[in-house]
Amino acid sequence: MKVVKPYEFKDHTADIIARAEGATLAEAFANAARAMFDIITGGAEIRAVEKHYITVESIDVEGLLVTFLSELIVMHETRNIVLSEFRVTFDSDRRLLAVCFGEPFDSKRHGGGIVVKGVSYHLMEINEGIGDTPCHVQVLFDI
After folding, report:
1. Cβ atoms within 10 A of the Cβ of 109, count?
2. How far apart are CA 85 and CA 18, in angstroms?
């Protein structure tokens, strides 16, 4: 059975653009994080054996997305972890809380990907969905 991923990658000359969907905006944010770690690990399996907490604040929803994903990059680089599951909630329109699950980075299992250096506001889209239309976010990853 083919697994359908809740995100897709788009062509870009020097970077990677990911468009992530979800039934809610929080789910779309979580799927953008999943897409980012798929880039970092080359799609390798990441076991959800450790729990990590994140709280970020920003002046708007675009800032929350960039700050959230940037914090995940910092966690990956400084704690040497990879993450696969994200439970995202919004405490307010300026504050995001997330519980993230993953495991220590293993270069043999997770080393087939591309280094993500940052997240850009360029070409960003955030659509909170209308009616039955799913929410989606689009983000450009600097590689």
Report:
1. 15
2. 17
* Residue 87 bridge partners (DSSP): 99
Give, as one character, the DSSP assignment of residue 60. Answer: S
pLDDT digits (tens, 9 = 90+) for 27-78: 999 999 999 999 999 999 999 999 999 999 999 999 999 999 999 999 999 9
Closest alpha carbon to 12 in 120, 102, 133, 87: 120
Which among 90, 98, 92, 95 is positioned nearest to 33, based on CA atoms?
98
Model pTM? 0.90
Q: List 77's β-bridge partners, or say none.
A: none
**Which residues lie across from 19 on neighbouring strands?**
8, 138
CA distances, 48 to each of 31, 39, 101, 106 (Å)? 15, 17, 5, 14
Mean pLDDT of all residues belonging to the chain: 93
Burial annotation 73-92 (CB, 10 A radius, 16+ → b, else e): bebbeeeebbbbbbebeeee
CA atoms within 13 A on the CB side of 107: 1
